[in-house]
Amino acid sequence: MHSAWIMLIVAGLLEVGWAIGLKASEGFTRPLPSVLTIAAMAGSFFLLARAMQVLPVGTAYGIWVGIGALGTVLLGILIFGESASPARLVSVLLLLAGLVGLKLSA
């Protein structure tokens, strides 16, 4: 079970990578970012599927999406200068609380 959680966390981090990569690839018009984005997608889906062999589907998918959303919002703020409004930051904290709740209830 422990390795399933590790695979799920890595899958979520790869989801962040491919989400950021989609922007960097500029609609798959830039070769290197495009290839890296597709590789991150494949790795993310593969590890998610492996984690789902052990973990409940709702928990695994929710945490995978949550890590991806949380990481992408934070990197959007840091890398792309997206809004860091108080409402957005509170929403990020609520998302984090939801992830912790899913993990504790699994």
TrEMBL record:
Keyword Ion transport set for record: no
Disulfide bond as UniProt keyword: no
Family: Belongs to the drug/metabolite transporter (DMT) superfamily. Small multidrug resistance (SMR) (TC 2.A.7.1) family. Gdx/SugE subfamily.
Source organism, top-level taxon: Bacteria
GO terms of biological process kind: xenobiotic detoxification by transmembrane export across the plasma membrane
GO molecular function terms listed in the Swiss-Prot or TrEMBL record: transmembrane transporter activity
Membrane topology field: Multi-pass membrane protein
A Pfam family reported for this protein in Swiss-Prot or TrEMBL: Multi_Drug_Res
SUPFAM superfamilies noted in UniProt: Multidrug resistance efflux transporter EmrE (SSF103481)
InterPro entries: EmrE-like (IPR037185), Small_drug/metabolite_transptr (IPR000390), Small_multidrug_res (IPR045324)
UniProt-annotated location(s): Cell membrane
TM annotation in the entry: 29-49, 61-81, 87-105
Organism: Stutzerimonas kunmingensis
Official protein name in the record: Guanidinium exporter
Keywords: Cell membrane, Membrane, Transmembrane, Transmembrane helix, Transport
PANTHER family: GUANIDINIUM EXPORTER, SMR FAMILY PROTON-DEPENDENT DRUG EFFLUX TRANSPORTER SUGE
GO CC field: plasma membrane
